[in-house]
Amino acid sequence: MRRVYLDNSATTPVDPAVVEAMMPYFTEIFGNPSSVHWFGREAKVAIEEARYKIANFINADPSEIIFTSGGTESDNFAIFGVALSGLRKGKKHIITTKIEHHAVLDSCLYLQKNGFEVTFLKVGSDGVVDPDDVRKAITSKTCLISVMHVNNEIGTIQPIQEIGMIAMEHGIPFHTDAVQSFGKIEVDVKDLKVDLISASAHKIYGPKGIGFLYVRNGVEIEKFHHGGSQEAGRRAGTESVPLIVGFAKAVELCAERMKQDYEHVSSLRKRMIEKINDLFAEFGDILILNSPYDKTIPYILNFSINSGKIDIDAEALIYGLDLKGVAVSNGSACTSGSLKPSHVILALGRDEKTSLATVRFSFGRWNTIDDVDYAVEKFAEVVKNFVGRAVLKT
After folding, report:
1. Which positions fall inside the Aminotransferase class V domain (predicted)?
2. Could you say which of 253, 268, 301 is where a domain stops?
3. Same domain, 207 and 224
C-alpha cells in the first residue's frame, strides 16, 4: 500500500544532514559540557556555536537563548517563569487567547486555579485575534501577554507585531509560541516586538526532545529547573549536546531553503484546494475550510465536515484515511487521541459535531503533487462512503 505522510505539523522526519551532524556527539565528542577537561570543553564549544547560529537566525543575542526539551517546556517556562516574577510585584493577571496550544492554555488554567486572573480572548471567525481586544484587556495587574504566532491547527498568523507594540507601550512582557512559524516564515525578535519566544526542533526536520526559549535581556523570569548552573543558571540539567547540534543544523538548513520550502508547500496547498474543489463538487458545501487562504501559512489546511449537511464519525474519518495509507490528524497531535471537539474550531464558531469532524493536512519539504492528489482522492472516497450510508440534510 502506498503511504503518504501529511501530518508535518505534528512532527517531521529528521533531515539526513541533521543526523550526520549529530553522530560525532554520540560517540566521539561525548563529554559533559560542564566538565573542565578537553572532552567537556569540546562539547561546550559545540553548544555555544549552536546557540550563536540559532540566535543569529532570529536576530537575537546568543545570551538570550535557553535550550529546553521542546516547545511544551519552553511555553511552560515562559508562562510560569514570568507569572512568578510578576507575583512578587503583586501582578497576577495574564492575557492569552482561546486558541493557544494546550501547553499555554493548561499552564494558564493551572495558574487561574491558584490565584491568578486569566483573560482568554476570543478570535474572529477567521481565527485571528483583534489587537484592540488585547489593549482593552490590560489592567494594572497584567504581568504577561501570550499570543501564539501561527496556530498549530488552522495555520492562522496572528498580528504579533501590533500586539508587541501594545505590550511595549504598557511595559508588559510579551510571549509568543512560535513552534509552528519558526523556520517556516521569518521570525525576527526585534521586528515582532516580542520578549519571549518558544520553538522546537522536530517541527523543522530536527530531532525530538530539544527546543529553546528566547528571553530578551532584561526580562525578569523565574527558573523552575533547579540543580546545576547550566544555561547561565537559568535551566539546570546536563545539556543534550547531540540534540542541540542537530537543532542548529536544522536551523542552518532552514536558513538556506526557507523561501524554497515556502514556495513548494504553497504549490501543494494550491493543488489540494483545486483537487478538493473538483472531487467534492458533487457533495455540495459539505466541506468547510477552516484555514483562510490569505491569513494562514501554506503549511496547513484544515477542513471540517459540515454537520448541517451530514453527521459523520470523526474518529472513523481519520482512521478511514489511515487505512488507505494517508496520515493526517484532526488537530494537535498532543490531543488528537482525546476524541473531544477541537477548542480551536469551536472558537471559530463551529458547532460541536462539526468541530469533531475535522481533518488537518500539513505539508512538508518532501511532499509531492502526487502525494496531494492521492490524499485528496482517498479523502473523497472516505467521505463518499459516509454519504453513501447516510442521507444528506437539506
Report:
1. 4-374
2. 253
3. yes
| Whole-angstrom distance, CA of residue 176 vs CA of residue 214 | 10
Angle between helical axes of 369-388 and 314-323 (0-180°, round to 10) = 130
- 297: burial class by Cβ within 10 Å (0-12, 13-18, 19+)? buried
Task: State the CATH number of the domain containing residue 333.
Answer: 3.90.1150.10
Catalytic residue among 108, 143, 254, 334: 334
Please list, in sequence order, all residues whose beta carbon lies within 8 angstroms of the beta carbon of residue 29, skipping any fewer than 6 positions away.
39, 42, 43, 46, 241
For residue 143, indicate whether it is catalytic: no
pLDDT digits (tens, 9 = 90+) for 93-144: 999 999 999 999 999 999 999 999 999 999 999 999 999 999 999 999 999 9
Domain check: are 21 and 125 in the same one?
yes
Q: Measuring CA to CA, which residue among 86, 100, 97, 139 is closest to residue 120? A: 97
In a domain, 393, yes or no: no
